Amino acid sequence: MFLEGSLSHTLRRLPILRLLLLLQISERGLSRASRAGAPLEDVVIERYHIPRACPREVQMGDFVRYHYNGTFEDGKKFDSSYDRTTLAAIIVGVGRLITGMDRGLMGMCVNERRRLIVPPHLGYGSIGVAGLIPPDATLYFDVVLLDVWNKADTVQMTILLRPPSCPRMVQNSDFVRYHYNGTLLDGTAFDNSYSSGGTYDTYIGSGWLIKGMDQGLLGMCPGEKRKIIIPPFLAYGEKGYGTVIPPQASLVFYVLLIDVHNPKDTVQLETLELPRDCVRRAVAGDFMRYHYNGSLMDGTLFDSSYSRNHTYNTYVGQGYIIPGMDQGLQGTCVGERRRITVPPHLAYGENGTGDKIPGSAVLIFDVHVIDFHNPSDPVEIKTLFRPPENCNETSKIGDFIRYHYNCSLLDGTRLFSSHDYEAPQQATLGANKVIEGLDRGLQGMCVGERRQLIVPPHLAHGENGARGVPGSAVLLFEVQLVSREEGLPTGYLFVWHQDPPASLFEDMDLNKDGEVPPEEFSSFIKAQVSEGKGRLMPGQDPDKTIGDMFQNQDRNQDGKITAEELKLKSDEDREQIHEEL
């Protein structure tokens, strides 16, 4: 009720400091007269509550929103915005208010409280307002300023927190996910995303947001916190919004940007660590084992293979994983560390998955490639050292060999070593005594030669692995051939270097009693070996081998061999062929 009537007084264009003209404060409060008892010449202002922060003061031409109580000197109330539950909202300094109120509001801060004494000539003068304000009335106002803005205002942005790295900034047409607290300029909260349990998700610059928020989000980085002050004409204007945002209200948003992407985005790759030697890069169809940490763009961790102490194992480029990861893993090297940023349309889309990956979330994977192979891979053989002298004979299937080895995963994790034992490892090649890939890699070696072997899992321990060996693991061997002995044909325990004696049984029957007990049989075979006339299967206990040979010849198992029982292996084979024919 203090709009200027017909007896308007024009506000002079005075600096704000001139407004603090007469501060008349007595012990009992405000006085209606000067100390000399003369009538007041100007508005008396008491700033009885001044907020700590005052980013702006009311100036002429500003639009203000405020509450007030208006009383006479005797305390009788003649008007109150509180009674109407509606704030006064008006432009200051353009003649729409009584001059005393115009002056009294100048220089005020939001949330400041003032008591104003307005003398009659700066109020309603000698005429007053019929039935409401008598002539020559001094008016007392208790005012609290809640909002101030100007048509020349723009969106005000204050960065509260900026992350150390900023992979990208928000641009028009981007899709953003952010949290916010929304308040009026006086701090009254009207909305927030946190109470809804999810981020606010929307496109920028496409008309989905109020104009001020569209502008205020531009240039933000994921993880950035920003304060955005929006004047009403870039917010909800004269109509406001529902019951929570009044007309002509400035809005303040405290925003935390969670992530940002564009529907046109592709997978972004960043190499964090690249091994010096990268002889092969992963392609579609390879089977890969890798560790990863998966996080949202604001750093929130949603999954990690390390927490399970187990690699993630899958085919690449075959649709077993999200498309963005399928793309991002191709071209990696064994041992490489790579950051893969996947936009939602190449991840879990608008719906997200589970309770840890929200809809429209950008995903960031920090990946460490442990190994990869292809189901068609052979054993990779690299000669590290070959003796300079001629090597006419090399290891082959059936040979008995002794060799040293170190075995590790491709990431360098040590598994086994023959050097941990007193003697080299022994094996007969082709006898299924070692994994197939190692058996192949040990063939064709010279004594003293050293090799590096890369054995794919289908030629090693397969999908299930073995004790100490993870499933689907590619194995790296460094082997050195220590010795090699000629092997025996399959099924033979002993072979002659020349034709056997014509009178074999007679030579074997040392005491000439027509029977050969185990002792005579063993002595005879050992004599042939020592004289170089024959050799036993290498790599086996000679006594056990001879015992097995005796058991084979003792057909009736009576503990002795007779002339009828004794037969050469070659003769037995011919008889078997004849029987089959």
TrEMBL record:
Organism annotation: Phodopus roborovskii
Pfam families xrefs: EF-hand_5, FKBP_C
Residues making up the signal peptide according to the UniProt record: 1-31
EC number in record: 5.2.1.8
Residue ranges annotated for the EF-hand domain, each copy included: 504-531, 541-576
Gene: Fkbp10
InterPro entries assigned to the protein according to its UniProt record, in alphabetical order: EF-hand-dom_pair (IPR011992), EF_Hand_1_Ca_BS (IPR018247), EF_hand_dom (IPR002048), FKBP-like_isomerase (IPR051989), PPIase_dom_sf (IPR046357), PPIase_FKBP_dom (IPR001179)
Superkingdom as given in the UniProt entry: Eukaryota
CDD domains associated with the record: EFh (cd00051)
Catalytic activity reported: [protein]-peptidylproline (omega=180) = [protein]-peptidylproline (omega=0)
Enzyme kind, highest EC tier: isomerase
Location of region: Disordered: 533-581
Keywords: Calcium, Endoplasmic reticulum, Glycoprotein, Isomerase, Metal-binding, Repeat, Rotamase, Signal
Compartments it resides in: Endoplasmic reticulum lumen
A cellular component annotation (GO) from this entry: endoplasmic reticulum lumen
Residue stretches making up the PPIase FKBP-type domain: 61-149, 173-261, 285-373, 398-485
Identification of the protein by name: peptidylprolyl isomerase
Chain intervals with Basic and acidic residues compositional bias: 555-581
Chief site of localization: endoplasmic reticulum
Keyword Transcription regulation belongs to the record: no
GO MF, one annotated term: peptidyl-prolyl cis-trans isomerase activity
UniProt function note: PPIases accelerate the folding of proteins during protein synthesis.
